[in-house]
Write a structure and sequence with these properties.
There is one protein chain. The chain is an alpha/beta fold. It has a single domain, classed as P-loop containing nucleotide triphosphate hydrolases (Rossmann fold, 3-Layer(aba) Sandwich), CATH 3.40.50.300. The protein is built from 7 helices and 7 strands, in the order E-H-E-H-E-E-H-E-E-H-H-H-E-H. The strands form 2 sheets. It has a 5-stranded parallel β-sheet with strand order 2-5-1-6-7, with helices on both faces. Strands 3-4 form a two-stranded antiparallel ribbon. It is globular. The relative contact order is 0.22. It binds adenosine-5'-diphosphate and manganese (II) ion (MN). Adenosine-5'-diphosphate binds next to helix 1 and helix 7. Adenosine-5'-diphosphate (ADP) binds next to helix 1 and helix 7.
């Protein structure tokens, strides 16, 4: 086992994963692994899903691509799903959550279609990602954090940095 931990930051699109991970990467010298960007850059997908309006991620290729750096530790991984990663990779799984009307406005600002907004708002209302995290990882490593405001981001970044210092 590596001495430096790996953290997964997950949550519905728009909850603030990338903003949060960028700040933690800077504050705590972690490597930010943005899975969406990696999939695009390295072509780790099986084409475009017209219906869901996103790439069809090739989970096996992503796991193979990351195995070495995950074993080294010190990564903060950013993705809106969590069940296909090997459980052993992560020492902490943070699930970001955002109040519906706030999330809605962020998805509008992002130019998401009505259908894509609806999918994501439902995902948030039914706490799909939190359930996925709780069924994929040990309960005591999964933490939910509210991400409605800039103050929330500051608080979450400092809590995660504190956890890293104590690891
Ligand atoms: P994700 O990576 O989860 O899709 P982003 O970090 O890209 O989310 O954030 C989406 C948008 O919402 C960005 O414009 C970001 O600045 C804003 N945002 C995210 N989290 C917060 C927050 N807690 N408070 C205010 N704005 C936020
Ligand atoms: Mn993102």
């Amino acid at each position: 086992m590596a001495n430096r931990p790996n953290i997964l930051v997950t949550g519905t699109p728009g909850t603030g994963k990338t903003s949060t991970c960028e700040l933690i990467a800077k504050a705590a010298e972690m490597t930010h692994v943005n899975i969406g960007d990696l999939v695009k850059e390295k072509g780790l997908h099986d084409g475009w899903d017209e219906d869901l309006d996103c790439y069809v991620i090739d989970e096996d290729l992503v796991v193979d691509e990351l195995e070495d750096i995950m074993q080294q530790g010190g990564n903060i991984v950013d993705y809106h799903g969590c069940s296909f990663f090997p459980e052993r990779w992560f020492n902490r799984v943070v699930v970001l959550q955002t109040e519906n009307s706030i999330l809605f406005d962020r998805l509008v600002a992002r130019g998401y279609s009505e259908k894509k907004r609806k999918n994501n708002i439902e995902c948030e209302i039914f706490q799909v990602i939190l359930e996925e995290a709780r069924s994929s990882y040990r309960e005591d490593i999964v933490v939910a954090m509210q991400s409605d405001s800039i103050e929330d981001i500051t608080k979450n970044v400092s809590e995660i940095s504190e956890w890293l210092r104590n690891f």
